């Protein structure tokens, strides 16, 4: 059996590793990557006494697939947790940073006193949020936007001041367009099972407290479940590369066409090489996969092309601690769209994880762009640096120039799971049944996080191992 995996990001690497891990007799795996390195958006740089993440800096341990992979690769002992203190986020409100109430997780409070005393919401907003305790279950509909769900359960203030910026930081999207069912289905399940989302979250918090033997402090994201690696996220990429045969892995190899020939597939690269395979895994952005499948299946091409993507940029900045007047008493802050700022969030990386910066230095990560601010990504690097410095001056009082900056742009990197995405995935799965030697992997389908991408790659490998016919010959 000869399998070609197209795309060497975390999904493609995971697919190739799962294929190799199966130890299927006679199995040959070829991995093709357009760039000059593997790992996709995962990249860790050591510079100026800092461990700098150009892409994602963490993953959720509650989704087991990446941690399980790390265990099989022998690097599970290198997984580290976020710092036990300062597990909270701030929110920009009327030009100032306000602490998100302790116990406020994603979209709902789990503690009464911090919610009552916070300055982030008006009394009207607080009462409206508390009505979730009394409201009946929502109507039984197939799908609902995340924004509509939050307004229905908690009111407009919670959506505008907390949920929108938090979701913007995760999905770079608009809650009024994103599908609740496809993005955060656990909240939909909470309403169905418990009626009140607040009651469900309080019960979960108590259960977590009992398991951990103490109070799980924090607010904002599920910081207690966020983990990374001691020397950065690229640790998992390097571990994967060590377990894959080097002669089967090709960088600087862009696939320009894919043709189905009977039960086999002909894959052509831009440098003139061709590969004939029993199975192909496209671990690419959905739009790129759509282009390659245009002549094979017009319906599949249309469905994949219809998944929109947002662009963003990440700017890492290194400062002397003495140049940052902010107390750095949290993991960072998010910026609601109504504040009309030029950044959507900022992470205090050297606070969030240990050993990210030398003593006396501070490492920050500012995020720009997303669905609502795509035009900001059209400016050059110097202008973008000015945007970021102006915002950090206004919000954190930083006047000094950073010691070092590193800007990374991610065009069309974040798929948008719009209302109806789950139905679209059902149609895509149905269309794939016509092509037993074809599988898709990546962040456009069943989850945008790194564990989801690992799971997607491994599922694609299993599909190919189960369904691909044995008829082709390598060219």
Would you spell out the secondary-structure blueprint of this structure?
Elements: E1 2-6, H1 10-21, E2 28-32, E3 44-47, E4 50-53, E5 59-60, H2 65-73, E6 79-81, E7 90-93, E8 96-99, E9 104-105, E10 108-109, H3 112-117, H4 123-130, H5 146-154, H6 156-171, H7 180-183, H8 185-194, H9 197-212, E11 226-229, H10 234-242, E12 249-250, E13 255-261, E14 264-269, E15 274-277, E16 279-282, H11 286-292, H12 298-305, E17 309-320, E18 332-334, E19 345-348, H13 349-352, E20 361-369, H14 381-396, E21 404-415, H15 421-432, E22 438-440, H16 450-467
Parallel strand pairs: 1-2, 1-16, 2-12, 7-18, 16-22
Antiparallel strand pairs: 3-4, 5-11, 6-11, 7-8, 9-10, 13-14, 14-15, 17-20, 17-21, 18-19, 19-20
Key phrases:
5-stranded parallel beta sheet; alpha+beta; globular; 22% strand; single chain
Overview of the structural elements:
- The chain is α+β, with helices and mostly antiparallel strands and 475 residues long.
- The chain has 16 helices and 22 strands.
- A seven-stranded mixed β-sheet has the order 8-7-18-19-20-17-21.
- Helix 8 packs across helix 9 (197-212).
- The chain is globular.
- Mean pLDDT is 92; it is low at 471-475.
